[in-house]
Amino acid sequence: ILIVEDEELIHELIKKKLEQEGYEVSSALDGAEGLKKIKEGKPNLVLLDVMMPKMGGFEMMEE
Which domain covers residue 24, as residue numbers? Predict the structure, then answer.
């Protein structure tokens, strides 16, 4: 699971809960970093914030 979220508190809460449930989680703090990680690792699921600096979630989906 890839989490793309710019707010660190929300990001860490989601990551911690998913890891407690046994999921393998990777992280990105903005859309550009998220795209790079998607191309590198092909995650099964992406949790994506739509409002982020640099590149928002909608822009990221268009790429």
Answer: 2-62
Map residue 55 onto helix, strand or coil.
coil
SS3 12: helix
For 4, phi then psi, to 5°, come to -115, 100
Residue numbers in the chain where pLDDT is lower than 50: none
Q: In this predicted structure, what is the pLDDT of residue 52? A: 76
Return the closest-CA partner of residue 33 out of 53, 13, 14: 53
Q: 12-47 in b/e burial notation, b at 16+ Cβ within 10 A? A: eebbeebeeeeeebbbbbbbbbbbebbeeeebeebb
Q: What is the token pair recorded at 3? A: 């989490």
Count of domains observed in the chain? 1
